Amino acid sequence: MSIQNESICSHCGISFRWKAIVTVSDNGSESRFCCRGCQGAWQLICGAGLESFYLRGDRHSPTVAESLLQTVFNDADLARRLVPEGDLCRLDILIAGITCPSCVWLLERIIAGIPGIEHVSLSYSGGIASLRFDPRLVAPLEIFEVISRLGYTPRPFSPEQSDLDARRERDDLLIRFGTALFLTMQLMAYSYALYAGYFQGMAAGMKLFLQYVSLAVTTPVVFYSGWPFLSGAWRSLKTRAPGMDLLIALGSLSAWIYSLWALFAGQETYFESAAMIVTFVLIGRLLELSVRRRAMSGIGALYASAPRRATITGEGGSRQVEVDSVRPGDLLLVRQGECFPVDCLVVEGETEVDQSLATGESLPVLLQVGDQARSGCINVAAPVTVQALRPAGQSYLMRVASLVRMAQAGKPRLQLLADRVSGWFVPAVILLAVMVGFGRFLLAGEGAGAAVMSALAVVLIACPCAMGLAVPAAVLAACSRAASLGIILRSGDVIERLATIRIALLDKTGTITRGQPRVMGIETCGGYSEAELIQSAATVEQPAAHPLAGAIVRHAAEQGFLPETCREFRNIPGRGISGYLPDGRLVLCGIELFLNENGVVLEELRDPDKDKAAATAVLVAIGGRLAGRYLLVDGLRRGAVEMVAGLAAGKIEVRLVSGDHQATVERIAAEIGVGSASGGMTPDQKLAYVKSLQGQGRQVLMAGDGVNDAPALAAATVSCSLTGSSDIALENADVIITGDDLSGIVTAWRISRATVRIIKQNLAWAFLYNLIGIPIAMSGHLTPVYAAVAMTASSLLVSLNSLRLMRFK
Amino acid sequence: MDETLIILIVLSLCLGAACWLVFIWAVKKGQFEDVEKPKHRMLDDD
User: Fold this and answer.
1) Is B6 inside any structural domain?
2) Residue of B nearest to A217 (CA)
């Protein structure tokens, strides 16, 4: 056993036990690196005087699988993406591998230091750098090279039209809201003075002046800031579907009209009600829009993860082409570590592919001649020649992306409780107001002005203040409480939907399990000691990239064994690996068949029943004799059992759906107490399953983590993801559980139930208030100022009731 | 006394209008584009 001190790579921070490949001495201090790549990056960073990068402690593992991205570009590719701006050029670059603010810091400074770069700004959330540079001084390819040398993966990015539209819409709403906020704040000062004047008396001239100023600041709020509601109300009138927009427009407009009339009639004005309604509801709209925008960027990420280039191979050698120009029937070469560019058929060679992104299968799958490979899968073992089956536009990855898009567009806009109620409340109030007006004019014989005023007073009293507050206040309290419990609720209506859930579908790989196998047990035989087995297996598995190999090596490290140097390492895809120990003995690790083929006699291992419990067994032979076997399982996430029990207690049915093997899924299901499990599901089948359950009138919660879950997540009534999931799953999720504990799903559900209860109480109160207030207003006995006080008290009650959610545990 | 009030109100409106213009400029300039990065930026040394 070779004993060597543990070294830590000066660049990437990985601790390694093998000999440092590169050592750089610099005035006394020595830097060790695990590889030349790290050394190169380190020299680049230190050369730019940015050593402090290494002192920053917030570096995490990357979230985008970088092997998915194309890394080779030529100048012609990039020249097409340039947008001329005067003498300068603009280029947007999507940079993969950004994991932390430090990366942004580093990239911005390094890029800005390239001669010819005029401006660079990098957004942390999107990982998109926009540059302005002088094309005569620097070629885009040089910029790309600098970024790649830092260890990030750059690719050109052209924002889609939909993104630009969404940005314009948000800016528009932001300006409307900002305008409303400034004017409303001014207005409050005048209203305060007018309230005081009402009770304490005030000079008539001053009062009139303040009222005129109020009119001046309110008018833009109602007609400019409130324009989305006015046009929405008009639309809902045309389609005869009265909604919240109509109520808001009616509330603000009637308050404005009444106040205008009151101003000239010398009565009290209520401009502040008109402005406040618009301002508050605009906040809600703005939040909703930013949520929608994030959902859109998820699809962008999926498109971005598609490979853009392919290697066509033929008699004349191989050449790189744009993936769009690949035709069905073309022969392509896919090297180790590359991503399959299109759906294709293996025609030569055999390899193992990582399909976890596409199917959710946790372990690499063997592909032989005649097998199909899906686009987006990663070739992990050996180069293969494949024949393209479909053009890139129809590839698996693109189909998943379009499924997501469709499911998102088709998601029924679940109406909020208040919205549903306003369906009859709004027409009822209008009808009542008209009746009061006509009644007073025709029957009581009052003047037209007084009749109109009392009609408007009814509408004003029925102003949707408390009703408008009933839902958002509770939602706001629930969301912030949930966030402090590690649950992110995407939007308010998620809460309402979550409370109606009747069935929960859970993905296995990455959701219930960690998607990382670990060693569960070791058996030895043939007189070998456990220590010898672990030492030998770790030594030959060390160079392998397979997750099972990783688990075995990790296990050895945990037990304190140091792998030695393995000679003549060979990887036989789908079978196992072989290699020689330093003492010259041959070690074989792999499946039974592999050892059999190599002439190892398989003795009876003790306790054959263990096979049933273990997902995978890896047999180890040393020097041609069976030495023992490893039993590996994919570990459960924390809280899985508690989650199933909690959901069951809430009368929610739980089912497991997965792309993994049926037997594996069933075993996990039994382990966590789930009765129903379906394995071997494709993304389309998962989507169809969700839809069929919804067709039976059941509200479905879907929890998943992979690209393969994305369509089902988008279609589900409520979708849920855990942090560490693929970007596309996170962007599609309504509920995100941060932290590693699955029982967060139950907590989210319980919060949503509590919130809906509070909302119902709030709405009940708002209606009770109207029920009492409206008749009094109709009778003409309610002075508007007291009505305003009553309204404020009502809103306060609703707010305080909502705040009770902050104490939810 | 009335004059003072009127002057103050006009003054506050002017101040508000100035803020409003700055805000419009900020939105157009894309200051609200990315609200994620700036909050980390203060931790940077420079």
Assistant:
1) yes
2) B13
